[in-house]
Amino acid sequence: MGGASTVAALAGGTFGLNLVRAAPANAAAHRNRRIPFGACVNVGPLQKDAEYRAAFVAYCQQLVPEGGMYWYDLRPNRDQFNFGIADTILTFADANEMPMRGHTLVWYGAMPEWTKQISSAAEAERELTLHIERVVSRYRGKIRTWHVVNEPIDDPVAGKPVGLRPSVWLQNLGSKHIDLAFRLAHQVDPSAELLLNEFGVESAGADAEAKRQALLALVRDLLARGAPLHGVGLQGHLPGKVEIDRDRLSQLVSEFRSLGLSVHVTEFDVADDELPASPAVRDAIVAARAYDLLEAVFAATRPAAVFTWGITDRYTWIPMWHKRADGLINRPLPLDQNYRPKPLWSVIDYFCGQTG
Ligand code: G3I
Fold this sequence. Notes:
By secondary structure, the chain is α/β, with parallel strands linked by helices. It has helices at about 5-10, 25-30, 45-50, 50-60, 70-75, 85-95, 120-140, 170-175, 175-190, 205-225, 245-260, 280-300, 320, 345-350; strands spanning about 35-40, 60-65, 100-105, 145-150, 195-200, 230-235, 235-240, 260-270, 305-310. Helix 7 (about 120-140) runs parallel beside helix 9.
């Protein structure tokens, strides 16, 4: 998919990148050494759009649910667990022999109303423990990788130290809720790979730099305290207008690797609301952002996986927050709204195909 023709078109086209590579002598061995590519799956289109299902089968080696494992999906009420959406997506993943990741156990967002009533450390610890025990044990042996803690670092404010993002967990338990979540998940499924997942650390600029430092400090603290943290997810939700800071991103990835952690790209897409209207220009910029990001990561290590946050421009969260003023549809993902591969796909295919 994508293959030599689109790569050649890209190489000869907008970028002038030399991405064309000779076919490997042993195609099967080459395939097996590819870095797995995946995307998030939304249950709505999964159930009604055959082309959507076919796209995952054609392009992906692994999946993650877009929704279904958020607290407001799993626990609409305090005493009710609803695994319906997560199970539906897992059934699709299993049927197509694609591992599915867990997303996510601890996040400030997508919380049900009732969690606002949590008002003490004991109550917070009780609910978090119940949640992680129920959810991780249900999928033990099926979900091999968990985004345990999602987006723990707060948005930087100039002149202030970067702290942890407010949440019901931080409010009631302080920073130890992060350690607790990793320890609980590890206790319930000792063989699962446990990740901390964060955004806003890839781009140039003071905010991203502050966030890089805060993330590295948090990771070091967690490891020093013995938390069973195995890897870091760099989400890769990128602002379209800002370049990647390739040197600093490479250094950050090297730091994580030297701490013994795996590194994953977990949610790549590009907010293209402020990019030029021309689809070709926008697609080129989106592909260039991916190229810079992946090149910086690969300069430090082979990532364990590369994910985009969705597979097709037809279904993406981007317009919820980044709708274009000119009414044109957003183009953040590897396939366009008619499931045709875009230059972004060629970039992903090129990097994931590197056998190192
Ligand atoms: O489908 C329901 C619909 O049935 C319901 O009537 C309607 C009313 O609320 O909501 C619809 O669900 C929405 C869902 O997206 C549809 O996919 C939810 O409201 C909306 O909150 C939900 O947003 C998700 C968001 O996380 C939650 O804050 C996005 O899909 C999802 O892409 C986004 O993903 C996050 C990652 O988890 C973490 N990193 C950032 C990323 C993007 O924000």
